[in-house]
Amino acid sequence: MVVEDEPDLAGLVASYLERDGFETTVTGDGAAAIDLARGVDPDVMVLDLGLPGLDGVEVCRRLREFSDAYVVMLTARTEEVDTLIGLSVGADDYMTKPFSPRELSARIQARIRRPRAGLGGPRPPSPTRGLRVFGDLAVDVAAREVTVGGRPIHLTRTEFDVLAVLSADPGVVVTRSGLIGAVWRTGWDGADHLVDVHIGHLRRKLGDDAVRGRYVRTVRGVGYRMGDGR
User: Which of 108, 166, 214, 217 is 20 to 30 Å from 174 by CA-CA measure?
Assistant: First the structure.
């Protein structure tokens, strides 16, 4: 789904995506985008931040109430605060205008091709189905399900992928650049704050915090690793 109020730009982005094999739905209205998303259930939303009326931040916030679509925010504003506001409501990536529609399509294709569960290819089945347990936290990689104390926790695709990377080798510290390379893509030229924002969301949903670090621990100056759940 392409949500952009500049018709020429929206059409250009849609044409590049369609050429690369995507089915597209285009709208220039934020409120209409929410209604359409409920019916279409998009895998990806390319979302302009500066929509009139219901802006991209509010669209993304409402979208996250029912969808884990991969969201790429488009913004004409280069101030970092605008980017972080967008990411704080669940955007996965951003591009500043003017941008290359070819690069946008390449980013999306690289993202959706990445194996989510295996992070390195499929694994043979086992009785635990790839279950990783840290105290009350259970991460079922094969099913892409997370529970805390038996209670299901809804994570976005990106939040789950961050948790999957960290929990794959719990004793190892993963740097911010390592997480960006594993979860987003190589060659990321944006701010490392992208990782910190998603870690913050993850901790909040798991009922964790930076001080206790039961599930996700900060290694100051280096990155993050899994806690033991205690």
Answer: 108
- CB within 8 Å of 135: residues ≥ 6 apart: 214, 215, 228, 229, 230
Cα–Cα distances in angstroms (integers) from residue 51 to residues 44, 57, 87, 93, 122, in the given order: 18, 9, 16, 17, 40
**pLDDT tens-place string over residues 110-160:** 777 654 433 333 333 334 456 899 989 999 988 888 999 989 998 888 888
Terminal-to-terminal C-alpha distance of the chain: 42
Q: What angle do CA 90, 91, 93 make, to 5 degrees?
A: 145
Contact by Cβ (8 Å): 198, 179: no
Pairing, β 44-48 against β 2-3: parallel
Place of tokens 């369609």: 18
Across the chain, mean pLDDT equals 83
- Name the phi and psi angles at 118, rounded to 5: -80, -30
**In angstroms, rounded to a whole number, what is the distance separating the alpha carbons of residues 38 and 124?**
35
C-alpha–C-alpha distance, residues 198 and 32, integer Å: 27
The answer to whether the predicted template modeling score (pTM) of the entire model surpasses 0.85 is no
- Return d(Cα 42, Cα 1) in angstroms, integer: 6
- How far apart (Å, rounded) are the C-alpha atoms in residues 44 and 172? 32
CA 40 to chain centre: 19
